[in-house]
Amino acid sequence: MITLHHAAATHTGRVRPHNEDAYLALPQAGLWLLADGMGGHESGEVASRIVCESITAAIGAGQPLPEAVQQAHHAVRTAAANGEGAAGMGSTVVALKIHDAHCQIAWVGDSRAYLWQNNVLRQLTRDHSFVQHLLDSGAITAAEASVHPKRNVILQSMGSAHTTDVKVGVVDHDLQPGDCLLLCSDGLNGELSDDAIAAILRRASPATGALQPLINAALERGGNDNVTVILVAALTDAQSLQLRTTGSVDVTAVRRAVTAPAAADASAGADSDKSWLDSSKEKAGKLLSKPLAFFRDEENNK
Questions:
Q1: Which residue in 116, 145, 191, 227 is deepest, having the highest Cβ count within 10 Å?
Q2: What are the pLDDT digits (tens) for 274-285?
Q3: What are residue 244's phi and psi, to 5 degrees?
Q4: What phi and psi, each to the nearest 5 degrees, are found at residue 150?
Q5: Sign of the four-CA dihedral 78, 81, 84, 87
């Protein structure tokens, strides 16, 4: 048996005037996701909110994760057509669903999921981006991709008016004790190389203790975009008990992991998103034994 521990946060960054990222943590439902909105104020943030809301409701209704993501795409399209937000708004998404020791990740766009296992970082998702297409075709190298002027151009997004159905990327993984899954918007990997991310994870004890160092490093490198990070770590029951009682876990068996306090999570953006939270809790009531942890405005901007 494994026990899951998570930590998550978002930051507007140093350049953007507002945060169009949104993320959701529902450990009691085994669901974590983040959405990176596009379209500007009152557009991108609307799209990312709808993505979180729609996927939560679909999972609550028993939909598989890929179908829930597809449903969210249609929800953003419908909202734009009905005058909610603005025409042309969109979002990326990367979502994680865990049941027992099996996890499934679904994504659209260039928000990523990584696996941190045995001190090695591996990207699980594949960007739906122009630069990834060039890489796959052999037209450019990885080094050229990291500085390509069109590296932020994505080939599909949630809510695109030109796409009836998105092609949802899906990957499955069986969790092992010590694994840590990292979900992030491109505000993280756009500033930090995979090697830099791995170096921060390697120094962190516990693995989820890398949350703030990762965000801080992205800000120090410029913070040119909103940055959102979710870390979900797997421990054995014995290791989880050791963590709760001593604050540490035997690092010869697994790097330590902690969960972000629920009260601290719930405080982020609570006022600004109260009406949405209320409606989402009603829609997803079957899933929830605690308030929905949906965030946009971060307490880490201070």
A1: 227
A2: 333 344 444 444
A3: -70, -30
A4: -110, 25
A5: positive
Q: How many CB atoms neighbour CB 15 within 10 A?
A: 10
Question: Which two structure tokens, joined as six digits, stand for 67?
Answer: 């179908």
Beta bridge partners of 31: 26, 97
Relative to beta strand 227-236, strand 21-26 is: unpaired
Strands 169-174 and 120-123, how do they pair? Answer: unpaired
Radius of gyration of the chain (CA): 18
Indicate which CATH number applies to the domain containing 276.
Answer: 3.60.40.10
Q: CA 279 → CA 10, 95, 186, 275, distances in Å?
A: 22, 21, 29, 6
Poorest-confidence range of 127-136, 219-228, 285-294?
Answer: 285-294
Q: Are 93 and 34 in contact (CB under 8 A)?
A: yes
pTM to 2 decimals? 0.82
Give the tens place of pLDDT for each residue, 111-169.
999 999 999 999 999 998 888 778 778 888 877 777 777 777 788 999 998 899 999 99
Q: Say how many domains are in the chain.
A: 1
* Tokens at 132, concatenated: 């990834």
Parent domain of 256: 2-301
